Amino acid sequence: MLCGSWVMVVYRSFHRLAYTLRTDDIDFAVEVARNCETDIPEILRKLEYLPLMDLDGLEKFIKGTFSIEFLVHRQGGKDAPYVPVKKMKIRALPLPFMSMLYLDPITVDLQGFSIRIPGVETLFLHKLIVAQRRIKESKKLKDLDQCKSLIPVIDAQKLAAIASTQQFSKNTKAAILKSVEAIGYSAFL
Question: Can you spell out the DSSP letters for 133-189?
């Protein structure tokens, strides 16, 4: 599933959002339990992406200024620097709250390709949470800017229904409130 900032480009083409992309990395969320056997590195090599492994063993794929990274849900505290996804022959970065993105996914057809992306409300809620967990202020502001851009197309009832399916800690609830206050989204307060 395409996730991260590039989803905003897809939303922009369907919802006429005002958003300017400011990233060269392309993130894909991977469901470890999904029954999919695909040699992702081979597919990316055919597209002229080169594998690059960091010191912790996490693998990215690079082509020019673009990099592709795979992400999986991390449960609880700190995990290993990567999770091997053997069926896809990749190593994915474990991050908290990634499973949320699968709650209401949509599939869009774009220039002859079917692309699975998170629903608008799901990505919005995810970004509200992760923004407050960012170490770099610039990434936090980018997350909040994305949320602000999504406000015109958010269905408040759908957002509330999605949020009600989650069990958030007190800290996570506080993060959500801090983010909605920062972007002026009073419908969720």
Answer: T-SSHHHHHHHHHHHHHHGGG--HHHHHHHHHTS---HHHHHHHHHHHHHHT-GGG-
- Return the DSSP state at 119: -
The per-residue pLDDT for 64 is 92
* Rounded-to-integer distance, Cα 153 and Cα 114, Å: 22
- Confidence (pLDDT) at 81: 83
Partnered with residue 107 across adjacent β-strands are 116
- DSSP, res 42: H
Please state the rounded mean pLDDT for residues 48-75.
Answer: 91
H-helix or E-strand containing 50? strand 50-53
Residues 79-135 pLDDT 10s: 678 888 989 999 999 988 999 999 999 999 988 889 999 999 999 999 999 999 999
DSSP-derived letter for residue 31 is -
Q: What is the pTM of this model?
A: 0.90
Is the CB of residue 10 less than 8 Å from the CB of residue 115? yes
Residue with tokens 């060269």: 24
C-alpha span between 14 and 42 (Å, rounded): 31
Distance between CA atoms of 37 and 133, rounded to whole angstroms?
33
Residue 33: left if φ>0, alpha if ψ -120 to 50, beta else—which one?
A: alpha
Q: How many Å apart are CA 172 and CA 66, to the nearest integer?
A: 32
Query: Could you tell me the two tokens for 124?
Result: 């919005």
